[in-house]
Amino acid sequence: MQACSEADVKTMIRGHLSQTLAECFIPELGEEKSGKVRSIYFSGDNVVMVTNDRVSAFDYILPNLIPFKGQVLNMISEWAFEQTQDIIPNACCPSVDPSVVVQRRMKNLNVELIVRGYLWGSMAAAYEKGDRSFCGLSVPDNLIRFQKFETPIFTPTTKAK
């Protein structure tokens, strides 16, 4: 693969801006549950998730789209599911499109975790105000923002409504 300059990469990205997926509406699949970066349809025994190219940060949708962002997000998810399928069965079905993930409908346990490798975000803000305990886990004194933890920390979270 040939190295590209920053200007070349920007030109390639600009050439694909017309191919971004801002939203998706497929009424044939039934009622849509729309999230910040996915449209979710419950279709028979399956859940169909169409991942768009919007960018979400801190529960806000940013105005710019990133070409192929949804496809890359799906590729990462599919790779992770493939890597763990020998440990625990998962719900993924074969892919039908790079922007789409299909999985078997299962009971949602409503559990979501953040794997924190660094002191940043809301945890850093609380740490700087003196908090040293997060979800029952102690964090050492004298850390600085963006410092890497010795061992990743798993904390529960919730999705914005």
Fold and architecture overview:
- The chain has 161 residues and is α+β, with helices and mostly antiparallel strands.
- The chain is built from 3 helices and 10 strands.
- The strands form 4 sheets. Strands 1-2-3-6 form a 4-stranded antiparallel beta sheet.
- β2 and β3 form a beta hairpin.
- The mean pLDDT is 87.
Notable traits:
single chain, 161 residues, alpha+beta, four-stranded antiparallel beta sheet, two-stranded antiparallel sheet, 10 strands, 30% strand
Shape from CA axes? Answer: globular
Q: Which structural class do you get from the secondary structure elements?
A: alpha+beta
- What is Rg? 19 Å
Q: Which sequence of SSEs, written as H and E, runs from N to C?
A: HEEEEEHEEHEEE
How large a portion of the residues is in β-strands, by DSSP E?
25-35%
What's the number of extended β-strand segments? 10
* Average of per-residue pLDDT values: 87
Placed side by side, the strands forming the largest sheet appear as 1-2-3-6
Task: Detail the poorly predicted runs.
Answer: none
Helix content: 10-25%
Count helical runs. Answer: 3
Q: Termini, distance in Å?
A: 43 Å
Largest sheet: 4 strands, antiparallel
